[in-house]
Amino acid sequence: MRTIIAHTRAAFFGLLALIGFFTLACTTPYPAASHPHRWEKLGQRTVNYHLDRDEIPVTLRDGRFTALKLVVRKAPVHLHRVVVHFGNGEHMEISVRKRIPAGGQTRVIDLPGGKRVIRKVVFWYDTKGLPRGKAVVELWGRH
Q1: 3-state secondary structure string, the chain?
Q2: Does residue 28 surpass a pLDDT of 60?
Q3: The total number of structural domains that make up the chain
Q4: Is 137:71 a contact under the CB 8 Å cutoff?
Q5: Are residues 71 and 14 in the same domain?
Q6: How many CA atoms lie within 13 A of 86 on its CB side?
Q7: Are residue 74 and residue 6 in the same domain, yes or no?
Q8: What is the pTM of this model?
Q9: CA atoms of 18 and 10, how far apart (whole Å)
C-alpha cells in the first residue's frame, strides 16, 4: 500500500512540475532578436474630407526599420503619394495612386540601406466621391 501511495505522489508531483514547465515556456516573451520581421504601430491620423496632406511623426525611441506600410481603418481613402523622412535628413518619395478600402493597406514599402531611423511620414490623399465617414490611417514599421 505504501508503494502505491509513493508512486501516486511521485506521479502527481512529476505532472505538477511538467505543467509548471509548459506554463513558463508558453508565457515567457521571446526577445526582439528572435522576431526579425516584427511589425510595430508607429502612429495614426484621422483624415479629413477632400484633398489634403497629413503627417505622422516617429520618435527615435521607436527604433530602426527595414520597411513601412500604411493601414486604413473605418473608411476608404485615395492615397496619392507618401514621403518618408529619415533621421539623417534624407527622404524617399513613393507614388501610391491607389484607392485603399477600409481594412486595406498599402504594399510593403522596403526602405533602402538596411535598418533606418524614421523621423516622419507625410502622405497626400483625398476622399472625394467616397462614402462619408472619417478614415484612420495607421503607420506600421517592420524591424
Answers
A1: CHHHHHHHHHHHHHHHHHHHHHHHHHHCCCCHHHCCCCEEEEEEEECCCCCEEEEEECCHHHCEECEEEEEEECCCEEEEEEEEEECCCCEEEEEEEEEECCCCECCCEECCCCCEEEEEEEEEEECCCCCCCCCEEEEEEEC
A2: no
A3: 2
A4: yes
A5: no
A6: 17
A7: no
A8: 0.71
A9: 12
Q: Is the CB of residue 64 less than 8 Å from the CB of residue 70?
A: no
Residue 14: CA count within 13 A, CB half-sphere? 6
Same domain, 19 and 47: no
pLDDT at residue 71, as a whole number: 97
The answer to whether 68 touches 140, Cβ cutoff 8 Å, is: yes
Quick one: residue 89, left, alpha or beta (phi over 0 = left, psi -120 to 50 = alpha)?
A: left
| C-alpha cell belonging to residue 78 | 485615395
For β-strands 136-142 and 67-73, DSSP reports them as: antiparallel
Domain extent for 58: 37-142
In the chain, the percentage of residues whose pLDDT exceeds 90 is: 56
